[in-house]
Amino acid sequence: MQMREHCSARSRNGKMAADLGELLVPYMPTIRVPRTGDRVFKSECAFSYDSPESEGGLYVCMNTFLGFGREHVERHYRKTGQSVYMHLKRHVKEVRGAAGGAIPRRRNGKVFLDLELNRDFNGDEYECEDEAKLVIFPDHFEIPLPNIEELPALVTIACDAVLNAASAYKKQEPDSWDEEIQVSKHARSLRQQDNGVRIPPSGWKCQKCEMRENLWLNLSDGAVLCGKWFFDGAGGNGHALDHFKDTNFPLAVKLDNITPDIADIYSFDEEEAVLDPQIAEHLQHFGIDIIQIQLNGTDNGHHDTDNTNNVRPRVSEWEVIQESGMKLKAVYGSGFTGIKNLGNSCYLGTIMQVLFSIPEFQRAYVGNLQRIYDYSPLDPSTDFSTQMAKLGHGLLSGLYSKPPMKSELIEQVMKEEYKPKGISLKMFKALVSNGHPEFSSNRQQDAQKFFLHLINLVERNSVGSENPNDAFRYLVEERVQCCQTQKVRYTQKVDYLMQLPAPIEAASNREELIAYEAKRNEAEENMRAPPEPVRARIPFTACLQAFTEPENVPDFWSSELQAKSAGVKTSRFASFPEYLVVQVKKFTFGVDWVPKKVDLSIDIPDFLDLSRLRGTGLQAGEQELPDLTPPIVLPEDTRGKKGSPEIDESAAMQLAEMGFPLEACRKAIYYTGNMGPEMALNWIIAHMEEPDFAEPLALPTFMEPGPSVASSGLAATPLDSHPPEESIAILTSMGFPRRHTVQALKATNNNLERALEWIFTHTEREEEETSDALSDMADTTEPNDNDASGPRIKDGPGRYELFAFISHIGASTMSGHYVCHIKKEGRWVIFNDHKVCLSERPPKDLGYIYFYRRLSSS
């Protein structure tokens, strides 16, 4: 009987295998095995933020390896005809915490997906189990996996390769994703003993020997012990490692290397350096505030602790900006979705939160969501409009910002322990940072530079469609005066951001600052602890006054004198934008070439009237400078002969070592007349967002006069500038229509080589259509808009109301943390990565970038 049943089972299995083989035969040509270089998206949908943890799971196309949520897989099937998908689903179950005070541990069930867990249960036990199956469309026929015996060999190999593929982002960005230090698996579930241990700011020694170097603080019980050969090679007796073997307390931080921006953390269990996203909280448990207490003294960390106990530290920038210590009420729903920090990605998250609080961006991307999705390319992960629409929908739909429903989670919310997930912008970051040396890294970046970078991407991807940049774009009137002849030149340039000076000399507490500097210098000379820092308080009116003051024009060439002369420049608004972005110039470069932040506060007004800063143009009695371009000045030994211009290569290499492209550094040195790296660095900062920033230096050889000051980057290019006739003649002699060549030269800043490439990539018919589209757009603008060939400007009154600001915490743009506050429905809301709460005390005086909206005329 048993033999008969066994034979019957084998017969059924053989029949099932044959049936599956026959079922898959028509689709075999479309099933691929991932090759080297293929990116497998098995953790995020290309059109939404659905993942295997979402209710509907994730469908991975077995041909393109793109991932799709349940609502979007049908679109991909209809567009491509691809029928076979792998459905991935991760089931996460909560389990009650361990009894008896034992440290709860994660219990994995059947887990075989290379996925990061997208949720945090704050140390409670949980189980996760992964499920995979093949799904054949349109009938949704399902084949559970693994099913090795019943599937054709090719299908089995392809399924195994997809399940074991590394992260799509690691494959795309090996330099910035593969090599980075990873977050410790113990970081979020670390239990710290409530034993009353408090670590003093100095004077440490190992608890088991007299070592005062290479000391490590165990983050579980506060034990201070010496290291050994591991991690940094420093000497010691290995007591920190012995302590781990005795207690299983896994994480330790090196004491003499803790700053507000960095901490060396080692995991004994994982046997490697790790990251701890909660390091500030873990250190605070032992009385260490990484902002207020500087653990970096001299004499191996020895200070006079009698003095430190008498110092009353001020409330730190870290606490004020994040509103620490206050019971902030979490908010959920549409417009209140947080963004997960990928590791120094808060500069990106804060900018995107503010942009998608602006109606123009909401309409352009979320309002056109279906059209954008329907016309997206076969690989939507590489399409800017698709990813912007996806991000906007993720932030505004409320699908990823739902309040906790279970009683235990509601209890955690009341205890301020619940941490909402937020959405992860890995796909978006990979796209917008692709090819950019700074933003593609995993280092902290300047939010202002990223804002301009994104504006540039929006500009390039909005030709012929609604351009939300119209809300920010305005014209600047620049008045340059030759000090010797008193003649002037008025030019206009497009801008998107107002840079507001912060004159320290105008601080209202100037005497206090002078006294602090004297005490600080005295402390340095006597090797004592520095005094409590003093923050400069600068009136906003002083900042506006500094903005209006004339500034010297370096290397000014007077067209009246036909020679270099002294010149001054003043800037005014030729138009006022719908939304005004104001950056406070808080950062300066130190002697080590690292941007450092000046500690200051400004009484930023809620309402702003800039009407008096509107430009007036050429005034009665003013005489204009002749419209002549300066000649190219070449070194004597290169005049009249071909070859590269003389460039101080050592200065260029010095700039390149700071991370800038070498060719950009060479151009900066050339255009600033070999006047040194400091002058060249200013040129680099002013031209980083230009499309040809990193292209090699190309000097014109087709005419005797050189490029104008504007085209060389020393001033703005006039909006009404006409391409040189010599350049037009060269291109028209090749058979191209004059109108087309003029458009090409204007689009490429009169660069012949790039203009020729532009002509071949833009047919005349396409340009006519674009011009017609621009003309139609121009018809809907304000009366003060430029003509269709110029930039679209929405001019209006210069009266504004503050609605958002971004704050930076830390000493440099290259480190620290960003937080943004946005006014919604009359209440200020704080967006701190994935946490979104009602703000109690918005720190408007400590902001870095401010966003104002125009007040209605009524």
TrEMBL record:
<dbReference type="Pfam" id="PF17807">
    <property type="entry name" value="zf-UBP_var"/>
</dbReference>
<dbReference type="InterPro" id="IPR038765">
    <property type="entry name" value="Papain-like_cys_pep_sf"/>
</dbReference>
<dbReference type="InterPro" id="IPR018200">
    <property type="entry name" value="USP_CS"/>
</dbReference>
<dbReference type="InterPro" id="IPR041432">
    <property type="entry name" value="UBP13_Znf-UBP_var"/>
</dbReference>
<dbReference type="InterPro" id="IPR016652">
    <property type="entry name" value="Ubiquitinyl_hydrolase"/>
</dbReference>
<feature type="binding site">
    <location>
        <position position="209"/>
    </location>
    <ligand>
        <name>Zn(2+)</name>
    </ligand>
</feature>
<feature type="compositionally biased region" description="Basic and acidic residues">
    <location>
        <begin position="636"/>
        <end position="645"/>
    </location>
</feature>
<feature type="active site" description="Nucleophile">
    <location>
        <position position="346"/>
    </location>
</feature>
<keyword id="KW-0378">Hydrolase</keyword>
<dbReference type="Pfam" id="PF02148">
    <property type="entry name" value="zf-UBP"/>
</dbReference>
<keyword id="KW-0072">Autophagy</keyword>
<dbReference type="GO" id="GO:0004843">
    <property type="term" value="F:cysteine-type deubiquitinase activity"/>
</dbReference>
<dbReference type="InterPro" id="IPR001394">
    <property type="entry name" value="Peptidase_C19_UCH"/>
</dbReference>
<dbReference type="InterPro" id="IPR015940">
    <property type="entry name" value="UBA"/>
</dbReference>
<feature type="region of interest" description="Disordered">
    <location>
        <begin position="764"/>
        <end position="795"/>
    </location>
</feature>
<dbReference type="InterPro" id="IPR009060">
    <property type="entry name" value="UBA-like_sf"/>
</dbReference>
<feature type="binding site">
    <location>
        <position position="206"/>
    </location>
    <ligand>
        <name>Zn(2+)</name>
    </ligand>
</feature>
<keyword id="KW-0862">Zinc</keyword>
<feature type="domain" description="UBA">
    <location>
        <begin position="722"/>
        <end position="762"/>
    </location>
</feature>
<dbReference type="Pfam" id="PF00627">
    <property type="entry name" value="UBA"/>
</dbReference>
<dbReference type="GO" id="GO:0008270">
    <property type="term" value="F:zinc ion binding"/>
</dbReference>
<feature type="domain" description="UBA">
    <location>
        <begin position="646"/>
        <end position="687"/>
    </location>
</feature>
<dbReference type="InterPro" id="IPR001607">
    <property type="entry name" value="Znf_UBP"/>
</dbReference>
<feature type="binding site">
    <location>
        <position position="226"/>
    </location>
    <ligand>
        <name>Zn(2+)</name>
    </ligand>
</feature>
<comment type="similarity">
    <text>Belongs to the peptidase C19 family.</text>
</comment>
<feature type="binding site">
    <location>
        <position position="239"/>
    </location>
    <ligand>
        <name>Zn(2+)</name>
    </ligand>
</feature>
<dbReference type="InterPro" id="IPR028889">
    <property type="entry name" value="USP"/>
</dbReference>
<protein>
    <recommendedName>
        <fullName>Ubiquitin carboxyl-terminal hydrolase</fullName>
        <ecNumber>3.4.19.12</ecNumber>
    </recommendedName>
</protein>
<dbReference type="Pfam" id="PF00443">
    <property type="entry name" value="UCH"/>
</dbReference>
<feature type="domain" description="USP">
    <location>
        <begin position="337"/>
        <end position="855"/>
    </location>
</feature>
<dbReference type="GO" id="GO:0016579">
    <property type="term" value="P:protein deubiquitination"/>
</dbReference>
<keyword id="KW-0833">Ubl conjugation pathway</keyword>
<dbReference type="InterPro" id="IPR050185">
    <property type="entry name" value="Ub_carboxyl-term_hydrolase"/>
</dbReference>
<dbReference type="GO" id="GO:0006508">
    <property type="term" value="P:proteolysis"/>
</dbReference>
<feature type="active site" description="Proton acceptor">
    <location>
        <position position="817"/>
    </location>
</feature>
<keyword id="KW-0645">Protease</keyword>
<feature type="domain" description="UBP-type">
    <location>
        <begin position="182"/>
        <end position="290"/>
    </location>
</feature>
<feature type="region of interest" description="Disordered">
    <location>
        <begin position="622"/>
        <end position="645"/>
    </location>
</feature>
<keyword id="KW-0479">Metal-binding</keyword>
<keyword id="KW-0677">Repeat</keyword>
<dbReference type="InterPro" id="IPR013083">
    <property type="entry name" value="Znf_RING/FYVE/PHD"/>
</dbReference>
<keyword id="KW-0863">Zinc-finger</keyword>
